[in-house]
Automatic annotation (TrEMBL):
SUPFAM superfamilies: Homeodomain-like, Tetracyclin repressor-like, C-terminal domain. Residues 6-66 form the HTH tetR-type domain. GO terms for molecular function: DNA binding. This is TetR/AcrR family transcriptional regulator. Keywords: DNA-binding, Repressor, Transcription, Transcription regulation. Residues 29-48 bind DNA. It comes from the Bacteria.
Length: 195
């Protein structure tokens, strides 16, 4: 029974992600989420108290999935440069996936100012990202490939700022073909920061 409930909850969360990515955060309703999940609104209410409840869980779920994917990719490599490349490959996953994630994520960020729960989830996501960056920076310093005077936390924060800034610029350029350009420019900028 529990497995079936978990599957149903996942189905609703996936529907919420698709609904927000298509309709936008402000426009999506519980009925839209139910329609995307092919269930009744009552079924959605059974698993989630409110639209806010679904969307909070959605933000936490998608940021945790992104982090898990990134850390798994990074952990498959031994040296700092390979870890950095794997990190960027994991972040710049594909134009459709990046477009969907950043469209939804930016909608959530626009709400975060008045929502303490979103702020907390977002800070947790960034702390996870900074940990990945710090690990890469500290390893690169030990290997002698990055500037030994770098502060690893500050550098990790700037790395993520460059990554997200690059992807947001790519998204707003509305040119899918520039995805690789922004990924390459991002890598060059990060390497400059590290040297």
């Amino acid at each position: 029974m529990k497995k079936k409930e978990e599957e149903r909850k996942k189905q609703i969360m996936k529907a919420a992600y698709n609904a927000v990515s298509t309709l936008g955060y402000d426009n999506v309703t519980l009925q839209d989420i139910a329609d995307y999940a092919n269930v009744s609104k009552g079924v959605v209410h059974y698993y989630f108290k409110s639209k806010q409840n679904i969307l909070s869980e959605l933000l936490e779920s998608i940021t945790n999935q992104i982090y898990s994917y990134e850390i798994e990719a990074v952990n498959q490599h031994q040296n700092a440069i390979d870890k950095l490349k794997a990190y960027l490959d994991a972040v710049f996953i594909s134009p459709p996936k990046n477009k969907k994630f950043y469209s939804v994520y930016l909608d959530f960020l626009a709400q975060a100012n008045g929502n303490e729960e979103y702020k907390k989830i977002n800070l947790n996501f960034y702390e996870n990202c900074w940990n990945i960056g710090q690990e890469i920076v500290e390893l690169g310093i030990r290997e002698g490939v990055f500037n030994e005077e770098l502060d690893s936390l500050t550098t990790a924060k700037m790395m993520r700022a460059i990554i997200d800034g690059s992807l947001i610029q790519w998204l707003t350029s509305n040119e899918e073909g520039l995805h690789q350009y922004y990924k390459d420019a991002c890598m060059k900028s990060i390497l400059k920061l590290l040297n």
